[in-house]
Write a structure and sequence with these properties.
Length: 298
Amino acid sequence: MPRAIWTGTISFGLLNVPVKLYSAVSSKAIRFRELRAKDGSRVRHKRVAEADEEEVAYEDLVKGYEIAPDRYVILSRAELEALDPKRSKAIEIEDFVDLEQIDPIYFNQPYYLGPAPGAERAYALLAEAMGEQRKVAIARFVLRNRESLAAIRAADGVLTLATMRFADEVVPPAQLEGLLGEEPETPPREQEVEMAKRLIESLAKDFDPGAYEDEHRAELLAMIERKAAGEDVLAAAPEAPKPTRAPDLMAALEESLAAIEGEELGGAGKPAKPKARKAAAKKPASKAKSKSKAKAAK
């Protein structure tokens, strides 16, 4: 069962609501171990001091800020935690804004906020009021010795918190030389823009997060299972799609739109056929089964 990773208080005017912070995501990334190629021996990384090559225990580590080559200002954990004790355990709401006003580029990591024991009523009050107002609270709090900006919103009686990037952490497009490439010789024609808008509209639908699966992860797991069973899994790398050349833009738009409209109509007035989907990768067997196959393969 997931545990709270942080406890503190939401400060909202004179209202203080004790809360617990939980991670809102569970990474499904496939993790590999580093092994020595010749014998498969596990490779481990150690913290080693450059001065004498001795391994350093975690409790002996301190933070150092480099002010010149090989010159550091050292700060202990206690010094970092004492930097601003008033804010170390408080989520201080500063403003309420509309969600549509926040560019998604500012969002970072999502979390859930739950009430601490005894704070259920105050928590429910804040969640209900925020839900009815449909506003997002912009707040500050300290997480892992770092001040974070955060957006708090209510959904179905639950408060969610997403850490945010500060404005000076987001790189303005104007600072990226060559971001937009060279100026096109001729700007997009009105007919091309209208056709592109029709293509966008034809693909528009309500967002359903369950409709999108990590196909690469499923294929990778299937490949691991097949290789554990002794199969040859080497395959040719797919070719990268070729960019559409400027003279072909209109033709590509028309062909794409015709294909989509044809699927929707199913031909000449016939019921639409379901869109072709990429063949689903074989579901991997349970870990125990995969391990047994791996042992058998050895």
